Amino acid sequence: MKKPRYGPLILAIIIFLALLFTPGSVQHALISNKKVNQAATSLDPNMFQGIALQQKAMDDKKYLPIYGSSELLRLDPFHPSNYFKVNPDGFTPFLVGRGGMQSLVHFLNFASMSNDLKNRKIVFILSPQWFAQQGLDRKHFDPNFSKLQAYDFVFNKNIDPSLKKRAARRLLQFKFIRKDKNLAYLLKGIGYSNQTNKLKLLGEKAYGEFDYRVLMWRDTIKSFSVHPHHPNVDPSLKNLSWKQLRHRGDLMGEKDSTSNTYGINNHYWKKIKPKYSHLKGYRKHERYYHSPEYGDLQLVLDLLKEKHAKAMFISVPENGRWYDYAGVPKKTRQYYYARVRKQVEKAGFPVADFSSHEYDKYFLKDTMHLGWKGWVYVDQAIKKFYDSPNGKL
Prior knowledge:
Blueprint: H1 7-20, H2 24-30, H3 33-39, H4 45-48, H5 52-58, E1 63-68, H6 80-86, E2 92-97, H7 103-112, E3 121-126, H8 138-141, H9 147-155, H10 161-171, H11 175-178, H12 181-191, H13 198-223, H14 242-256, H15 266-272, H16 292-306, E4 310-315, H17 320-326, H18 330-346, E5 351-353, H19 373-387
Parallel strand pairs: 1-2, 1-3, 3-4, 4-5
InterPro entries: DltD, LTA_DltD
Pathway: Cell wall biogenesis; lipoteichoic acid biosynthesis
Keywords: Cell membrane, Membrane
């Protein structure tokens, strides 16, 4: 009877562990510059929830990261990714955002980039809808949550302990995170260290480190499958003045929203029209006075300030005509605009505040998303910010 041969199995285990604990710099090197360039307009969740592609982009100063949510998907010719292809200014927008990606999601993202944020120019687009009374809910957080980034946050020793404590306690407010026993215990060790067993915490860290390494390799492999959106460029926008561009935005908006008086594009209005009469006042109870989102935004601001990032925040207005019809009081909206601007400026960052454009037709493409002329104003603000040596407006 032949004796079992364990040599190949042992060799396979050794190779697996060697790969698993290969330094991140090796995984970093596996990702080509071409793949990073494709990722810039991919709007791919694998990239958002990963680290590898974003870190590689951070290493290349030609990329200007733009963080936001669903407005980034509105890729008309005036969108920064398309406009700056026609009128290059020395940078390529790198888009990070989709629906439901609010401040807490971006905080974890920034935490995983924390060593690369110093003096890095970035753009962050704020949406009023984030600041509803409930704030970020599971419906929007769960599909955008990155366990990899959460582990990176846990093991990151270069973030102020008091900031880590606040963030860990906030994350533990979500039931779906508490259900992950390992991650929850590690977060509890940061947020409530007096309530954890040191020996158990040591064991959970060892397991978490292993899981973290597996997720890092998975992220690297998934990075190879990221593909860009097809560009929607309009060569006729080349060398036009900002005034001319705004006029072009007006013309395009007028052409694309002939079915209604709210400046909402026809395709979107087609969804609203059947229930239009029932929507009058449907958001009359909506308020922006008290929301966990202000605290989540403060986490972002404190981290960016700690890491000496050069960030510009963009305050997007709501569609005034539509929100009047929907019943959201104007004073509620004005409260939000003023509060969020004060909060960001207090942290030392500039704000491109477009709240005065609530009733500016074709500034938004629908009830809440930038489009047409709105992107022209944003392009102008981005160019001014990028060209400024100190990252000021």
